[in-house]
Amino acid sequence: MNRVSTFPAESWPSSATGNDVIAVHPAAAALGITSELLQSRGLRLYEEAAERVLAETDAEGREFQLTPAASAAWQAIKAAAADQGIVLELESAYRSVARQVEILQAKLAAGETLHEALRWVAPPGCSEHHTGRAVDIGTPGSLALVEDFENTSAFAWLQQHAGRQGWVMSYPRGNTQGYGYEPWHWCFEGTETAG
Ligand SMILES: [Zn+2]
Question: What pTM value is reported for the model?
């Protein structure tokens, strides 16, 4: 389901040579991110979702966009959870490459090394949030984007039901991409066709 970027690699800066060069987004290259780094972690490029709809607005007026299909899937899972007394909220949804640059720059400005920052923040161009199909989920009573989310009833519900509705927890413990464990981050990969 994931769409891999088809930008021509030769038009992007890369310190690697050879046949299997993974293109580095210019914004990532500007931050010192190399194709070797992407390759060593098995990271991939995602295109920014061209077609997006407003999926949710939170109490502070923050707007969250998703692709039309992911937004519909989000409404469905949110309603299904609500039916069982579980409140699911968006903490993050679609994110542009430019926004990803800002997030990473803020981490670096706060004193983190690039290596440290990239454990929790994807290189610009490589965030699943660019696709408009990935969400960070929160629930009342739990801090946002912390591992303790896994102890909430919302997470228990997601583990039991989200997969059947086409959602995948992208970064479990020990994920091969080298990200930290993110029980809050789920991506809509499409619904299964029941057979
Ligand atoms: Zn996320």
Answer: 0.87
Q: 48-94+132-188 maps to which CATH number?
A: 3.30.1380.10
Tell me how far the alpha carbon of residue 101 lies from the centroid of ligand 1, in angstroms: 15
Tokens of 88: 């699911």
The alpha carbon of 185 and the centre of ligand 1 are apart by a number of angstroms equal to: 5
Q: How far apart are CA 34 and CA 155, in angstroms?
A: 35
* CA of 171 relative to ligand 1 center, distance in Å: 9
Residues of the chain with pLDDT under 70: 1-20, 192-195
Q: Which pLDDT belongs to residue 1?
A: 43
